[in-house]
Amino acid sequence: MDVIKLTRELGAAIQQTEEYKNFMAAKIKNDNDALLQEQIGDFNLLKLQLDAEHEKEEKDEEKLREINQKIVELYNVIISGEAMTEYNKAVSAFRALTDKISNILLMCENGEDPETCEPAACSGDCSACGGCH
């Protein structure tokens, strides 16, 4: 049994799932959305301006507030847009699939039966968790 070959087959199978296809379609849609890319570019420039302003010895608090407010407003525009909303849903669904796959592999590494092990649902909040296996 060639474990690396099987891993490559798993990778190919993952790429055939609806979760992967939806994720890639949403990613390509965002990458090709000129307005969204311009907004992301503007957002990154504002963050650079904010960093530069923070590095000054004599900080202009009013300018810092102004830049920060612009960042928050632009972030809200970006994140609430249809394309980004669709992308975030696709990412969440794909991550849920890959997290389940990873957890099954971890359970198998810890001696669980590969045919019957089932990862517990994970909220992402580890503070109240008894562990992933």
Give structural notes.
Helix 2 packs antiparallel against helix 5 and helix 3 runs antiparallel to helix 4 (61-80). By secondary structure, the chain is mainly α. 72% of the residues lie in helices and 0% in strands. It has helices spanning 3-14, 18-31, 34-55, 61-80, 82-109.
Give a nutshell description of this structure.
The protein has 133 residues and is an all-alpha fold. It has helices at 3-14, 18-31, 34-55, 61-80, 82-109.
Distance between the termini: 26 Å
Q: Can you give the mean pLDDT?
A: 92
Rg from C-alpha positions? 21 Å
DSSP, total strands: 0
Low-confidence stretches: none
What share of residues are in beta strands? under 5%
| Helix percent band | over 70%
Secondary-structure element order, N to C = HHHHH
Number of helices: 5
The profile of the biggest β sheet is:
none
Q: What is the approximate shape? A: elongated
Structural class: mainly alpha
Layout of helices and strands, plus pairs?
Blueprint: H1 3-14, H2 18-31, H3 34-55, H4 61-80, H5 82-109
Short descriptors:
133 residues; mainly alpha; 72% helix
